[in-house]
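Notes from the 1:1 (GR / supervisor)

We went over the backlog. Supervisor wanted to see one worked example end to end before approving the batch request, so GR pasted a single chain during the call. The sequence is below; no edits were made to it. Supervisor asked that the structure be written out right there so they could see what the output format looks like.
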Amino acid sequence: MTRARRIATAAALVAFGAAGQVSAQVKDWPSERPPRPLPARDVKFPPYQFRTLANGLQVIAVSHHEQPAVSLRLIVRAGGTQDPDDKPGVASLAAALLDQGTTTRDAEQIASSIDSIGGAIGTGAGSDLTFINAVVMKDSLSFALDLVSDVARNPRFAAEEIDRQKQQMLSGLKVSYEDPDYIASVVFDRLVYGFHPYGRPDSGTPKSIYSITREDLVAFHKGYFSANNAILAIVGDVTAEEAFAGAERAFGMWAKSENIPQKKVDPPAPTRRVVVVDRPGAVQTEVRVGNIGLPRKHPDFLALDLAIKILGGEGGNRLFRVLRSERALTYGASADVNALKDAGDIVADTDTRSESTGEVLRLIVDEMWRLQRQRVSDRELADAQSYLTGSFPLTIETPSAIALQVLNAVFYGLDLNDLQTYRERVNAVTPDDIQRVAREYLRPDRLSIVLVGDASVFAKQLAGVGFDEFERIPLSELDLGYAQLRRTATPAGRLQPISYQTSSGQAPAPPSARDMIDRAVRAKGGLTRLRGVRTVHATTSTSLTTEAGRVDIPTSTWIRYPDAYRVEATMPAGTVTQLFVAGQFWIKSPKGWEEAPSAALADIKANIQRDSIPLLIALADGKLPAKTTTATVDGKEFPALEITLPGLGPLTVALDPKTALISYMRYALGDKTSAEEAFSDYRNINGLQVAFNAEVRRPSLPPVVRTVKTFEYNVDLDPALFTKPS
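Structure output shown during the call:
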């Protein structure tokens, strides 16, 4: 999906007085900062009513009598996400054809009839939805309802109109493929979302547009266009009863579907990947930097939106200040939160001279780290809050704008009452909230990065700013349908990271299992240091998502190697303690101590066998059999070891090609499913490399994220911590 660049502009207000006042005020001018914004004027969201018709159509009526006009917005819950996997663009083409002819009107009749009453109609599709909009004067409401109903229910999909719209889409794509802004955006989406439907361009590709048939369009319409998969908003100079009666008359006979196809796919977890799309001769580089974000309904969305406003949005924009105001490296820089129905992304966006590409990339990533590590000032947060609360009245000035707000709330499953309290909720966000969401959802160590420009100018800069591994793809070979994003492969069959290539560009012979083990041990801190670790004390925060929302569980862990582990977790219902000593396992809940069941004992033993410190020591001593393999982590192949653990299935351990640190584990669970753990944010703790972030993923369950707060080893631990309970 292509995103338009949002460039913020600011207006300065200068106040002046009489000549006698000027001389008295000279010492205070100019001020260090621009004047604070004026107090927000009181504004109330118009009253609304909500009703579901017998066929399942949700209808929202909003009375707004300032103008004698009515706005209709019909949303169908299907868009590019519902396209066939091999034919992106079906939803966009179908939407473009809706008002180009029905079974009772041709395209000319639709256009002339809406023009004759001074109204307007439009159709389109996005990633999650298809829409039909109409605006008419109040006395034409009945006609508009009938027209929108006809367009939604009875599209003709005439062959000549299909051909005409295809040609228009292909012409548009030809122009887009010459636009580096478009290229950077679609490649970024592909990196962030992988093969999730959000990773495909909604407008399709030339190949997919050519392949779409009338049968594809009919099947899409039949599968998703039904009353119980749609929402209708009627906003303007109309009473609620008039709106509901009109909706019942025009849409009451729309059929209800009992089997709406579902396409639920989880997007991949963030992974670091740098792609350079080479455009020889380009004088500028388009830059995109970001990672997976949040769906719109997530309870942290508002706080994250404010955090990214501070990073690069209206009312804040550190990126603009650093890149433009302080260093003159660009004309504009921004950061956005793009929240969709099932997922979302965070993206920083700018362009710069080819010669400045490396510097700009480094500064963007540094600002992301700074947002995580340093608490934002009250003034910065207040400015971002003022922008959101001050601009809110503009979003409900017209019937169409009001309709959009209400439809968004219903479509994303938000509480409609939140519209009334929007300002209060924005102003309730604190600097601590900003730092929390920045630490939780920004992933500076696992960013998707796209650079579109002349690689011969800037590629050599990347290693010097910390990005020595990247994929270089000629624009002429770019193809979003392939995992490697290009139509031709390297001699080795896939793109190789730079650190895995010789000077001639050919991949060297793969390392042996012993070589990989030795590298991993050295990367962790060396065998002598690993053998010397006697005790560990760590505090962590474990985050998981439940039906009630996100839950953060503070946890403390004490380890006395080789066989004593204690974990205390502060749960909502009280503290739960787990104690494992010499093969025995107990659990203490608020009700008291009890011996753990056999299944829990098996789980804790498996967890201990996967502890990286004793695991690496056992591998180095040859006590565990291991062989080389590869592991696909978030669409990218990593060198890996397949390790046989006693009494357990195989454990696959992937190593980061650059650092040789453990980046990923995959293992079988007792319920015949598998789990994955991704490790990142390694930090040097007195010579020992410790992953401060770990994410556990299991099929059909939300991920569990563990973030280390403090870590120390070889400290004195109270023996009572490991005393067996009576």
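Supervisor's comment: The domain at 273-477 is CATH 3.30.830.10 (Cytochrome Bc1 Complex; Chain A, domain 1).
Batch request approved.
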